[in-house]
Design brief:
It comes from Echinocactus platyacanthus (Candy barrel cactus). It contains twelve helices and 13 strands. With 307 residues, it is an alpha/beta fold.
Amino acid sequence: MDRSRVLIIGATGNLGYHLAKASINASHPTFALVRDSAFDDPQKSQKIGSLSDAGAVILKGALEEEKRLVEALKQVDVVICAIPSKQALAQQNLIRAIKLAGSIKRFIPSEFGADPDKVRIHGMDYNFYSSKVDIRRLVEAEGIPHTYICCNFFMSVLLTSLVQPGLKTPPRDKVTIFGDGEAKGVFVKEEDVAAFTISTVDDPRTLNKVMYLRPAGNVYSMNELTEIWESKIGKKLERTYISEEELLIKIKETPYPDNMPFIFIYSAFVKGDLTYFDIESSGGVEGTQLYPQVKYATVSEFLDTLV
């Protein structure tokens, strides 16, 4: 079977670049839509050169340029959007272009986090998740074949500090535990998210489904993360527990956007939004079960690099 032609939007970003590389590595004809201005940015220009050298076709355009966008879409079968979450509503232009192109067999919108339909913090997330919900409903209303990717946390976001906002490395003496420390979060490395995402592209089992990632060895509570880190550094940390009420006050008193890490922590490690539901009964599929051949980094292996 011929592999689908894949267009990556946001290929000069962190996840987008990994998605493009994973698509090329999986032998998909790979295209990257890139803004004209990206060529003037040394870091982005280097990524564009790397992708081009690896075999990607570089197309110039942007979500607000409908003519260029439709022309790009007509060259491919699958489009994966990896623009920043705060720009999620810009995908309205992409959805309109997908309908005009009439050739897209699957759309993977920019989600790559918690399931926006499952989180229970609406009204306090500054539309971070509600805008993603709006895009889901529009995709479904337009009858566009899709797959939603819910990979939960990237390892580079909170795990580098052991879920300690304000720190750049894990603590060596004291650790703050939010809530009772028992709710479990999920962490996946960006490269691994990309590999699992590309695996879905031609898989009928993931069509019009949510694919979640809950890899064994990557689903831990704050108490468990602390114990893993203590075993690696050979030292017990002094623990301070912050109650739900105290965390909510902290969120309220901290200005936006500095309070967003605390909001994500509240959702995952107090409310338990990443793991409170059963995947199968909610109509989803789990990536590591579908693709056991995909190797991934574990939390323990990632923390080893920080010792």
